[in-house]
Amino acid sequence: MNMIETKKLTKKFGSLTVFENLNVTVKKGEVLVILGPSGSGKSTFLRCLNHLEQPNCGEVFIEGEKLDSKNKKHMRNTIEKVGMVFQNFNLFHHMTVLQNVIEAPITVKHEPREEVLKRAKEIIAKVGLKEKMDDYPSKLSGGQMQRVAIARSLAMRPDIMLFDEPTSSLDPELVGEVLGVMKNLAKDGMTMVVVTHEMGFAKEVADRVIFMDGGKIVEEGTPDEFFTNPKEQRTKAFLNKIL
């Protein structure tokens, strides 16, 4: 069974077609990296996978369950299997690191507080922030805030993690600490879809790379195929500019 499957997925904003007829599958434990120039539809595609954006047509399946906006309860239960990390950290600034991480499992999933606290502390330690548990976001660096955002998503016990350019708003020296956490997640077998400009991460961690341009999938393959022997001229031009 595929963890994610899209069939003829199309998204438009008015007369602008962001992407059209995208058929994408992601297997359990797979790390799919989506590359492409700005405006190619990558982030919007990601947001359609958990219905932060509603596609105009086509279908999205999460672990074989079709996302159906008419069945709100079923869709909410299905989407809870999908965690998402954004470019901007979206932390609650009036809450400590620990409070940020425990908030959603307690208020959204109504899990017992003690159980959530125990799990949250383990996750915060796992992302390397054990000493920052009682700090507020204002005392954290950008890289630390993004690691809190990852911990917050993991606290919901998702089966799938989506990353929308998680390092794009970070200073270059802070990028590595976030990518390190993501690499560890991949080693642990987390199914991940990552929109990024970090080519090193794509080469090292991705099982498969998709290159999007103009709302279409131009090329896809293993990192080795993609980076050392791209087939499409548009892919070659893109790689020549950024490598």
Give an overview in words.
The protein has about 240 residues and is of the alpha/beta class. The protein contains 9 helices and 10 strands. It has helices at about 40-50, 70-80, 95-105, 115-125, 140-155, 170-185, 200-205, 225-230, 235-240, and strands at about 1-15, 15-25, 30-35, 55-60, 65, 80-85, 160-165, 190-195, 210-215, 215-220. The strands form 2 sheets. The protein has a 6-stranded mixed β-sheet with strand order 6-7-8-3-9-10, sandwiched between helices. Strands 2-1-4-5 form a 4-stranded antiparallel β-sheet, with helices on one face. A hairpin with a 2-residue loop joins strand 1 and strand 2.
Please supply descriptive tags for the structure shown above.
243 residues, alpha/beta, six-stranded mixed beta sheet, four-stranded antiparallel beta sheet, 38% helix, globular
